[in-house]
Amino acid sequence: MRVMVKIKRFNPGRDREPYWAEYEVDVEPVDRVLDALEYVKWHLDGTLAFRRSCAHGICGSDAMLINGRNRLACKVLVKELGARITVEPLRGFPVIKDLVVDMEGFFAKYRAIKPYLIHDEPPPETEWRQSPEERARFDDTTKCILCAACTTSCPSFWANGAYIGPAAIVNAHRFIFDSRDRGAAERLAVLNTGLGVWRCRTIFNCVEACPRGIDVTRAIAEVKRALLFSSL
Amino acid sequence: MYVGRERPTGGFEVFAWFFMRISGVVLILLVLGHLAIMHVLNTVDEIDFEFVAARWGSPFWRTYDLVMLWLAWLHGLNGLRMVIDDYVHRKGWRAVTLTALALVGFVLLAMGTQIILTFEAPTSRVTAGLP
Fold first, then answer.
1. Whole-number mean pLDDT of chain B?
2. Which of A57, A77, A101 is the last residue of a domain?
3. Backbone phi and psi for residue A21, each to the nearest 5 degrees, phi listed first
4. pLDDT value, residue A231
5. Model confidence over A90-135: pLDDT tens digits?
6. A10, A217, B97, B127: least buried by Cβ within 10 Å?
7. Does B7 map to a domain?
8. Do A167 and A151 touch, CB atoms closer than 8 A?
C-alpha cells in the first residue's frame, strides 16, 4: 500500500519556520503510523526526529497529532487513516526538532501534584491492605502513561500554558482517591487555584485524545467535587 | 521547577464553580416558566404595560423576576470573567477588562433590582403618565 505521509518539520538551528515535508512510503495496511515514520527515517530521510521507545502503546513516547487528532503513532494503523497521513508535533509545547517536543514543563506540573504515596503512619508488618472496592475507586486514573495527548489537546492549555493540565490532575486523582494515601489535602491545595482544576472548562477534548481510554473529564470533575465538599 | 502556580484562590473558585451549576439548573426552570407565560400562553400582542404592572402586583412574580435577574446576570458575568481569564493575558488589560466588567455588572444589576423592588403598579396607564 502506497501512502503519502506529510510531516511538519522544524529544525530550530536551521529553519526560520516549520514547513511541511511529504514522503511516499510503502507499508502494509496493518502497519502502524510509527512503521511509516520509521520507513521515512531509515530509507528516505535520516534527519527526521521523533520519539519512540516501547512501540506498543505503554511507554507514552510517541504521542503526536495524526490527521488532526492526538494519538500514539504505535497504536493507530495505516488502514484506519487511508492513503494520506498528516503528522504534526503535539500542540502547545516548544518544538525541539520535528516531532520531538520539550516536555519539561509538563513533567514539572506532574511533579507538582506529588505523584507518590504520602503516608506518615508507621508501616504495617506485612503490606498496606486495600479492598477491591477501594482499589476500584481510582482504577481508571492508574492507566495514565504520561504521553501528554490530553494536555496538548486542551484549548484551556493552549490559551494559557501555565494551566496545570488534565494529565497532572489525572495523576493527582490517582492518589487523592487511594485509601492508603494521606496526602489528599496537599494535592487539593495545589489544584485549588485559577490555574489548577478551575481552569478546566469541560471541553472533553482530553477524553477523546486519551489513548488509554481514561475518562479524564470525569476524573477532573471528581477532584472539583472533592474540593467543594472539603470546603463546605 | 513548576512556576505556573497562582496563589491559592481560597474558596472563591470553588464557590463560583458551584454557583454556575446551581444557578444553571434553577435558571432552566425559571426561564422556561418565563418563556411559557410571556411568549406561549400570552402572545406579544396581549402583553403591554398593564399586563406587566398587574403581574408585578403580586409579590410572587416580583420575587420570581428578581431571582431570575440575579441568577442570569451573575451566571453570565462569571462566564465572561472566565473568557477574560482565558484570553486576556496582559496584566494591564486584565485589570481594565475585569474592572469594566465588575462596574457595568454592578450598575446594571442595581438598576434592575431597583426597578423590580420599587415599581409601583398604577391603576391605569393615564396615572402612570403614559399615552
1. 87
2. A101
3. -120, 140
4. 77
5. 999 999 999 999 999 999 999 999 999 999 888 889 988 999 999 9
6. B127
7. no
8. yes
Dump pLDDT digits (tens) for B52-110. 888 898 899 999 999 999 999 999 999 999 999 998 989 999 999 999 999 999 999 99
Q: What is d(CA A183, CA A178) in angstroms, rounded to the nearest whole number?
A: 10
Residue B128: per-residue pLDDT: 56
Same domain, A164 and A83: no
Q: Residues in chain A with pLDDT < 50?
A: none
Beta-carbon separation of B9 and A112 below 8 A: no
Are residues A124 and A17 both part of a single domain? no
* Overall domain count for chain A: 2
A162 at B interface, C-beta within 8 A: yes
Question: Is B7's pLDDT higher than 60?
Answer: no
**Do A190 and B11 lie within an 8 Å CB cutoff?**
no
pLDDT score for B9: 53
Tell me: do A202 and A108 sit in the same domain: yes
Q: Which domain holds residue A43?
A: 2-101
A195 three-state secondary structure: coil
Reported ipTM: the value is: 0.80
Nearest 5°: CA angle at A194, between A193 and A197? Answer: 70
Beginning with the edge strand found earlier in the chain, give each strand of the sheet holding A63-66 in spatial order: A19-26, A2-9, A84-88, A63-66, A69-72
Contact between A34 and A63 under an 8 Å Cβ cutoff? The reply is no
Q: How far apart are CA A150 and CA A152, in angstroms?
A: 6
> Are B4 and A161 inside 8 Å of each other by CB?
yes
Q: Is B17 domain-assigned?
A: yes
Scan for cell 496526602, then name that residue. Answer: A183
A117 touches chain B (CB under 8 A): no
- How many interface pairs between A and B have CB atoms less than 8 angstroms apart? 59
Question: At which residue does the C-alpha cell 482499589 appear?
Answer: A135
The CATH number given to whatever domain includes residue B102 is: 1.20.1300.10
pLDDT at residue B126 tops 80:
no
Instruction: Answer yes or no: is pLDDT of B5 > 50.
Output: no
Which pTM does this prediction carry? 0.88
Residue A70, helix vs strand vs coil: strand
